[in-house]
Amino acid sequence: MTTAEIKTFMLAHNIQHIFIQSFKSLLDQNNCEDLDITDKNISVDIENIEPEVGDSDTITLKSAVHQNNNKIGYYKLVFTPAGELLDEFFLIH
């Protein structure tokens, strides 16, 4: 997908809102030990959601996870081309 197609996809499917809701749900449903973090005072950078190259049947978007102004990992969401959320990944460095 081109940059313009990614932007159109993100706007059409309200991807920033999905990132916020999914990330909040992840934090609510898991404890710090499960997530391998020291505390839940972390945030996802929804202003800088980037596409990740994958297969043509899915669209993977990732955003940095920050704690105390330091990037500690990534949060990724995988979508169908129709905008259906398929999977999520929470990666800590």
Protein architecture, described:
The protein has 93 residues and is an alpha+beta fold. The longest helix has 15 residues, at 15-29. The model has no long low-confidence stretch (mean pLDDT 94). The relative contact order is 0.20. It contains 3 helices and 5 strands; from the N terminus they run αααβββββ. The chain has one domain. Strands 1, 2, 3, 4 and 5 form a 5-stranded antiparallel sheet that branches.
Nutshell version of this structure?
This protein has helices spanning 3-12, 15-29, 32-35, and strands at 43-44, 50-52, 59-67, 70-79, 85-92. The protein is of the alpha+beta class and 93 residues long. It is elongated and about 35 Å long.
Helix-strand makeup class: alpha+beta
Helix content: 25-40%
Query: What is the overall shape?
Result: elongated
Low-confidence stretches: none
Gyration radius, rounded? 13 Å
The total of helices stands at 3
Tell me what portion of residues adopts beta-strand conformation: 25-35%
How many beta-strand elements?
A: 5
Mean pLDDT: 94
Query: Whole-Å distance between the termini?
Result: 28 Å
Oligomer: single chain
Summarize the topology.
Elements: H1 3-12, H2 15-29, H3 32-35, E1 43-44, E2 50-52, E3 59-67, E4 70-79, E5 85-92
Antiparallel strand pairs: 1-3, 2-3, 3-4, 4-5
List the keywords.
3 helices, 93 residues, alpha+beta, 5-stranded antiparallel beta sheet, 34% strand
